[in-house]
Amino acid sequence: MAKSIFEKLGGEYEQQGDYLIPRLTVPAEEDRSIGIWGRRHLDYLKQYRKVTYTNLLTSGKLNAYLADINEQAQERSHRLIEDMKQAQGITEQLKAENALEWTGKMNNILACAREIVNKELIYT
Q1: DSSP reduced 3-state for 9
Q2: What's the pLDDT tens digit per position in 8-45?
Q3: Sequence-distant (≥ 6) Cβ neighbours of residue 120 within 8 angstroms
Q4: Are 122 and 113 in contact (CB under 8 A)?
Q5: CA 93 → CA 35, 82, 90, 97, 98, distances in Å?
Q6: What are phi and psi of 22, to 5 degrees?
Q7: Positive or negative torsion for Cα 109, 75, 65, 35
Q8: Measuring CA to CA, which of 10, 38, 81, 91 is 20 to 30 A from 119?
Q9: Which residue ranges make up each domain of the chain?
Q10: How far apart are CA 75 and CA 60, in angstroms?
Q11: How far, in Å, CA of 116 to CA of 30, rounded?
């Protein structure tokens, strides 16, 4: 019997009753933590970018891609927070003198940084 294209490319079949089922496996992937930003992007990919999600999953690159997104988002977030703190003059002295005001300003900065990172990296 002539070989199929699948067999010519190195694929194998497995007998299941009267049927030949192709043995399909996903390549092994390095196990890296994807973090909160990676999980958010994963949810976005599953819901709005299904083809990209499927391609990354079947090529074995999804975890590495999400870990990279997580690292980029963390770095961007930290940079934004530090820049905003300097621009608004938020210091440790303010924290010591008026903790409530410091907390309010920091919560505002964290929310702004989160929104910017979401717009630039996570939901695109």
Answers
A1: coil
A2: 777 888 889 988 888 877 767 778 899 999 999 999 99
A3: 76
A4: no
A5: 32, 16, 8, 6, 8
A6: -70, 140
A7: negative
A8: 91
A9: 33-122
A10: 25
A11: 29
